[in-house]
Amino acid sequence: MSVTVVGSIAFDAVRTPHGARERMLGGAAVHFSLAASFFDEVRVVGPVGDDFGDEEYAVMRDRGVITDDVEHVAGGKTFFWSGVYGENMNSRETLETDLNVFETFEPKLSQASREADVLFLANILPELQLNVRRQCERARFVALDSMDLWINIARPALVAAISEVDCVILNDSEVELFTGEREVVAGARTIMEHGPSSMVVKLGKYGAALVTADDSFWVPAFPVDFVTDPTGAGDTFAGGFVGAIAAHDGEITPDVLRLAMAYGTAIASYNVEEFGTERVARLTGEEIVERVEELRRITAFEPAPVALR
Amino acid sequence: MSVTVVGSIAFDAVRTPHGARERMLGGAAVHFSLAASFFDEVRVVGPVGDDFGDEEYAVMRDRGVITDDVEHVAGGKTFFWSGVYGENMNSRETLETDLNVFETFEPKLSQASREADVLFLANILPELQLNVRRQCERARFVALDSMDLWINIARPALVAAISEVDCVILNDSEVELFTGEREVVAGARTIMEHGPSSMVVKLGKYGAALVTADDSFWVPAFPVDFVTDPTGAGDTFAGGFVGAIAAHDGEITPDVLRLAMAYGTAIASYNVEEFGTERVARLTGEEIVERVEELRRITAFEPAPVALR
Question: Across the interface, do B39 and A89 touch by the CB < 8 Å criterion?
Answer without folding.
Answer: no
